[in-house]
């Protein structure tokens, strides 16, 4: 059975390119998504060891491709040649990782899983377009889109492996963990910074705070309480994560 460390090594070997990383930073793995992905795939007893590896590595390649494209500066024109090269490589490396996922699954004959990930990518791009063009979104709508964006890839994988019942848990769990860790590390959620920049420092502090973070946590446990018997394994994952990690305490 391949371990977390073993899967990481396989992923790193797929990602490494000495020229690319001379100019841009090495991609960062989203640890919360990584742990959840490993759990979802390893929990599925019908998958072969080869399928598990392909599903895990290809899904993370897509996630890293999406994250890499998100780091590309929005401004149209680079100030220096070095900045232009860095921007171009950022775009091309994201395309490269995306191509790797397709090649990996195509070689394994996993055409159905290629479609699952392609559907997730399409949904993510549609949500990004909505955020870009809809400038007057209410905060609640904006947060809901951000939550879907954050979880879409793993939601599609979970629906393929299990059923739609896990969607709410995955969305709220990843949103809760993201905001909880950002507040612990930076003193505030980075979503608050993003919302303020989008709305010219609108008065959103009372709306994106510890209470909102706890609401996402409560939504996770509410969804867990309604799980059918075949999906109770998700409760095991949530409780293991809550028990094993030091949590930031809030009143």
Task: Walk me through this protein's architecture.
The protein is mainly alpha-helical and 251 residues long. Helix content is 72%, strand content 0%. The chain contains eleven helices and no strands. Helix 3 runs antiparallel to helix 4 (49-70), helix 3 packs parallel to helix 7 and helix 8 packs antiparallel against helix 10.
Major sheet description: none
Outline the low-pLDDT stretches.
246-251
The chain-level structural class is mainly alpha
Shape descriptor reads globular
Mean pLDDT figure: 84
DSSP summary: helix tally: 11
Percentage of residues in strands: under 5%
Rg is 19 Å
Helix and strand run = HHHHHHHHHHH
Number of strands: 0
Separation, N- and C-terminal Cα atoms: 42 Å
Helix content: over 70%
Layout of helices and strands:
Blueprint: H1 4-15, H2 20-23, H3 31-42, H4 49-70, H5 81-107, H6 111-133, H7 139-161, H8 167-186, H9 190-198, H10 210-225, H11 233-244
Keywords, separated by commas or semicolons:
about 250 residues; mainly alpha; 11 helices; disordered C terminus
Short characterization:
This protein has 11 helices and no strands. It is mainly alpha-helical. Helix 7 packs across helix 8.
